[in-house]
Input
Amino acid sequence: MTWSDILRNAWDAIRNHKLRSMLTALGILIGIAAVVLTVGLGQGAQQKVSNQLAALGGNLLIVSPGSSTTGGVRGGFGSASTLTTADATALSATAAAPNIKAVAPVLSSTSESLVNGTTNWTTSVVGTTPSWLSVRGRTLSSGHFITAAEQASGAAVTVLASDTATELFGRRDPVGQSVTINSVSYEVVGVLTSAGSDSTTNLDDQAIVPLSTAAQRIIGGSTRNSVATIYIKATSQSKLSGAYQEATAILDYRHGITATGTADFSITTQQSVLTATSSVDSTLTTLLIGVAALSLIVGGIGVMNIMLVSVKERTREIGLRKALGGTPMVIRRQFLSEASMLGLTGGLLGVAVGVGGAKILPHFISNPIAISLPAIGIAIGTAIVIGVGFGVYPAARAAQLSPIDALRSE
Amino acid sequence: MASAGVAASLGVGTPSLGLPVIELDGVRKVYGNGQLEVEALKGITLSIAQGEYVAIMGPSGSGKSTLMHILGCLDVPTAGSYHLAGEDVSTMDEIDLAEARNRRIGFVFQQFNLLPSMTALRNVELPLSYAAMSRDKRRLLAQEALDRVGLGDRMNHKPGEMSGGQQQRVAVARALASNPALLLADEPTGNLDSTATDDVLALFHELHQQGRTVVLITHEADVAARAARVIRIRDGLVASDEVAAEVAR
Ligand SMILES: Nc1ncnc2c1ncn2[C@@H]1O[C@H](COP(=O)(O)OP(=O)(O)OP(=O)(O)O)[C@@H](O)[C@H]1O
Ligand SMILES: [Mg+2]
Output
């Protein structure tokens, strides 16, 4: 008997009991759908993180001021940041820090009103230096970025992010136009290319001004030397920890930090921030994996159960097939094929449900779900293996039946 | 007429026609073990030649079905030897036995034993599919066999759509299709009314006339009367073995 005959027989047997076969396949279906969704959820979270990393410019370290030191002894600036432009300058000295490629100190105000004639738009204003562009991995769609001369003179110029430019100027090119911030008129010198959003902010809605300008005219009130954040770009991804150590050493020295745990600044990597904020709820993942594993086992037992019933019910048929020349091997193959077909049917339907879920669920939960072909392949393979695995025993029972006992059964 | 007239006496066949298809020598069959042993066959010796039409008769429990299982290679004797078409069955393993059943023997059962979900054609094809035969050849042979039993126009009907007599004729077609050396029938008319019985017996008679070897187990004297030779079994032993004086048409 050829394989095509065996498979045809198996398929006929499954079709002869449509409802029973579907119910049996259902157990496998649920398990496989859960596997596809769980894997998709994990991969979706990973993809989201790496997309955001790419959007933010890789190899990035973020230096933030720590809480004020006890007793307010150091610095004496009250609530002002402990980081200064001088810190940024020291970090960018290549001799002391060969793993640091560029440094961008930043002062920002999250809510400033920008006015163009009658159009009014509230956004965040970021004061920084010319190196910001390469540190954050951004590009310009028109005009130029803040120059060293503009930074040195505290010029009233601004570079708008793409959404901000659209809000204020519509489809017109804003370069050469002016916007008013805090009743001072700024010339728009450039527009940033769109970069999407990270976990918390829209990267395409901000206005960039020279750091000196921001300190004098926008942030005000605090010392002109302090900055809110210093972004550090390492020379490469592999040099990130080297850059981290250099930055820590330099800032410890400059801030007179000797004991561990007393630093008035903290350095984080972009990766750690993102992984923390966007990782999938681990309870949900554990639950899904548990459901998947359990229902695959329950589904497998279902296959075995139905196959045992089928062998029992068809004892006479098995006897007849043996009498007509069916060898134990062929009989075993027929029942194994039936079991694996039940598994495969459940697997294929499970993948369909899983893929459907991956398309629909993200509309209701905040996590993206990736659909990966290797995961689907593995899921289908698993379904077949479960079918075969739980079909071995019933098939062996069928193969062992003696033809006369089987024929005599009623 | 008594074209296959065979002189048989004292339980040892001396066939005048062809080679022996069946040769049993001192065959015993014991069921069970320990205290519950049943000796169903107590030493059967007989020989059936090619082309014979033999009826095996005997009271209930005498061992007819047991004998048929051994003749059909569905079971092996506890002692004694059985040669099927010259081959010693006791040397065969399970796979050889399956092949012997497939190639050399065509079975007809009392309960027809057709698979209800398959058409007549596929039922007849079933033994051929176990013989690793191409699909086209299988189909052709199955159609021929169905034509021969007069059901060429019912090929695509399922057993449930046919009368008992028609079903049994499909079963005969299935037994014929692989052109076996031996047709074995256990009470083939046991579930049929008199008209259907006549049809099926006419079919056996025709096959016998065409030179087939037919062994038929039956209770009924008028069924046995159609055969050329009647072997009576009693208590697991051959009680008589005689050539019918005149075969009733
Ligand atoms: N599997 C078995 N286990 C134990 N004893 C058995 C088995 N099969 C048959 N026997 C016994 O062997 C003897 C012969 O049985 P067998 O079925 O061959 O009789 P039979 O001549 O075909 O009877 P019937 O005409 O009623 O079909 C009986 O006593 C029966 O009880
Ligand atoms: Mg019987």
Remarks:
- The longest strand of chain A covers residues 100-116.
- Residues 68-80 of chain A have pLDDT under 50 and may be disordered.
- Residues B 64-65 surround magnesium ion (ligand 2) (CB under 6 Å).
- Chain A has two domains: 3-52+280-408, 67-263.
